[in-house]
Amino acid sequence: MGPVTSSAEHASGSLDERSICAVLPAYNEAENLDEVIEELATVLAGRFAHWRIMIADDGSTDETVQVMARLTAESPSVSHLRLRQNGGKSQALRTALDGLDADLVLLMDADGQDDPGELYALLGALDAGADLVTGRREIRNDRFVKRNTSKLYNAATARMTGVEGRDFNSGYKLMTGEVAASLNLYGELHRYIPVLASWEGFKVAEVDVNHRPRAHGSSKFGRNRFWRGMLDLFTVKFITTYSRRPFHLIGGAGLSVGLIGGVLLAWMLIERIAGNEVGNRPALLAGITLTVVGVQLVSVGLLAELIVLLDNRRRRMRRSTDEGGFRDR
Hints:
By secondary structure, the chain is α/β, with parallel strands linked by helices.
């Protein structure tokens, strides 16, 4: 995707000169798009000289394609992309963010529940020093089940990751272009954007925002999404805790298993010295198996550490080359 387009008719010395791109993932939200885009465009044009809205259609089966075509024809500052099939919100966001060139990136759901007017509150927190700001829905206009499963999920996420927050999976987020470029989203990882950003060293924050009732259509939330999100929490915990020190997990497990195997073998040795038959003892087989598995896990952990070391060295060399002005084009 190219750079954010300039809206010359709104250009003014009083407007923010930073470029901003608003990305709206959408799945069967044709009834809401007209109102959402019109309201959001008014807010962006009143604050920024260079703005753009991108609709990321996640394989919708309603009239979304026709609505997007009309909206993009009506305004050069509105664009869209369409996935051939429904791959989930993370895939839609990843596709939209790939190669995006903007100083600021706004993520907002296309269902009309996020209030575009709250952009000013997000900007205030970003200008105060945050790299990513999440709009925290203090009063949620959603179903009872959705509200309470979200509370459970947010509490578990904060506890397991150590990142402070009460509304990680809010779709209303403002971030710098650098944060957006660092995100590698798949599965249900869009729920953990603040955690992933914090892990990369960015400062994250939350501000209270207005959350409106859905005007049209129905929620896409289901019980399967909740369980998939909880499973991905373990994925996030793993990649943010052990991806830079894999031996701590793999090698630690290997040493523990190997220790148990060693104790069993030592026991069998003592039994054999005492004159007892050990050849048909299950403990002997278990001790040998656990010791072998432990050695293998330790070896895999060391290989993983070597891979991380080489990857970090490659990254440092790339940064050094970029800073020296010799980057290949």
